[in-house]
Amino acid sequence: MASKPNEKWGTDITYVTTGEGWLYLASVMDRYSRKIIGWHMSDRGSQYASHDYQKQLQVYSMIGGISYKGNC
Length: 72
Fold this sequence. Notes:
Elements: E1 9-18, E2 21-30, E3 36-42, H1 51-59
Antiparallel strand pairs: 1-2, 2-3
């Protein structure tokens, strides 16, 4: 539980199937306000495992975590 804004964020990727293939919606939620503070739509699905993503977590002293399906 967060006690102030921007103390903890939660992330999720939603997979949407279309007639042309899969789309991926990645979102970031502030755990204090429960507002979506960032999102990105893509047609690729390896965002959280990528080297660039992991590097950005380190740059901003963030800790990545994986939760179970439907827990956002």
